[in-house]
Amino acid sequence: MQIMKFGGTSLADAERIVQTAELVAERARTCRVGLVVSALAGVTNFLVECRDTALANEDVTARVGRFRDHHVREIERIAQRLPGLDEHGLRRMLSAQVSLLEGWLDGVQKLAVCPDSVSARLLALGEQVSVRIMEQVLLALGQDVLQIDSSDYVITRGSLLEGTPILSELDTRFAALRQSGARIVLMPGFIGRDEQGAMSLLGRNGSDYSAALMAYGVKAELCEIWTDVDGVYSADPRRVPDAQLIPEMSYEEAMELSFFGAKVLHPKTIAPIAMHRIPTLIRNTLN
Ligand code: ASP
Ligand code: MG
Description:
Elements (H helix, E strand, L loop, with lengths): L1 E5 L7 H15 L4 E5 L5 H13 L5 H21 L5 H25 L4 H8 L1 H16 L4 E3 L7 E3 L6 E2 L1 H13 L4 E5 L2 E4 L4 E3 L5 H12 L3 E6 L23 H9 L10 H6 L4 E5 L3
The protein binds aspartic acid and magnesium ion.
The site of magnesium ion has 3 residues, from loops.
């Protein structure tokens, strides 16, 4: 099985979402794919704003409306490209998620507190929506896709917003998927749950980490992180125009770079893939 992880920029709008799904479908012709997606671009930051607005006891109606409208617009645009898309099903799913968002924000506003258990559920909404959109896009493309709930697989300890995954749990929980038939196994990034059953997150930008955990669990032959740069550079290419692309590096070098602030990978991503020596590629969806 090969893991492909797509972040927000690969899912920025309808066109990119369909392109991403087509890339995955093409890969699925030659091997099974473990697919991990994050929220659509900007959505998690937006959910943070929603929570903070509710905490400040300000009106959140307009923001909730923007969350809904943004997703409705992209769903409509996808449906224009893919007439087989279950647009009504996706709209119903979105309404249900929006009702949850409204209810939780209302609670936060009234209570003027937002415990981590509630923050985790609020911030996970972006992935909860994007994963269902991706599932339906793949189905509309005629793909054999199984969507799994990452919180049945990624069990964490400690903070609910930046949990520490229990690696031994990954082994047992992912075991069945190593054999299971679906060509594409789709999982939301970022989300897990703790041993008491509360939803937990892997920290901001945690879906790279989710991909690495899935790669570890299914003992993947390859892990690809699809993003908006061609790989790891000698410096941040957005700030240093003549930064050099580094063709290849050891797990140890990659780990050090990300711990010292290279943004290309979530710092904890390397450890699980290094344990099984899984080759990992950074690839550019725009290129
Ligand atoms: N959507 C989450 C975040 O923005 C996780 C991720 O994008 O990797 O932090
Ligand atoms: Mg990221």
